[in-house]
Design a protein that fits this description.
single chain; mainly alpha; 0% strand
Length: 163
């Protein structure tokens, strides 16, 4: 089962998509978790989510972790499907609870009440591709799925020694 979770093709396009989504969500997650890039940090974000938006604390904590840890997971290509799942769920909830009411488009001109959900759809599409296909080339998932303990054979041939 672990091998299926980690399996991924040697695909550079997936790698590029994963890295772009990873950088984006790491930055957003670092705002919420660490207060970097002008964010409010963990306590400020938890306060806003729980008191300002009425989100239960365990769900607010999961949302922060999905962005921060999911972004890190995508950057390293480690447990990519789990990281992508967290981000996809986060974006679906964001659309359903906040952004759908503001329409499709982001608030580029400052004339609408809030931000639309076009960004969220792009994140969902990228995350879904990774849920289905995996991390792509240059990922920890690919490396881990290809390594086997010495002496353990696979259906594709003899075991490879890992340095």
């Amino acid at each position: 089962m672990i091998r299926k979770l980690l399996s991924t093709p040697d695909d550079r396009t997936l790698t590029m998509m994963r890295l772009v989504l990873g950088v984006t969500f790491f930055a957003h997650g670092a705002q919420k978790m660490l207060g970097w890039f002008g964010g409010y940090g963990f306590h400020g974000t938890m306060g806003f989510f729980t008191h300002g938006m009425g989100i239960p604390a365990p769900l607010a904590f999961l949302a922060i972790c999905a962005e921060f840890l999911g972004g890190l997971g995508l950057l390293f290509g480690l447990l990519t499907r789990i990281a992508a799942f967290g981000i996809v769920v986060n974006m679906l909830v964001a659309i359903a609870t906040v952004h759908a009411a503001n329409g499709f488009f982001m608030n580029w001109t400052g004339h609408q009440k809030g931000e639309g959900f076009e960004y969220h759809l792009l994140a969902i599409a990228l995350g879904t591709a990774m849920l289905i296909k995996g991390a792509g080339a240059a990922s920890m998932d690919r490396w881990l799925s290809r390594t086997r303990p010495e002496g353990q054979a696979s259906s594709s041939g003899p075991a490879r020694k890992v340095a």
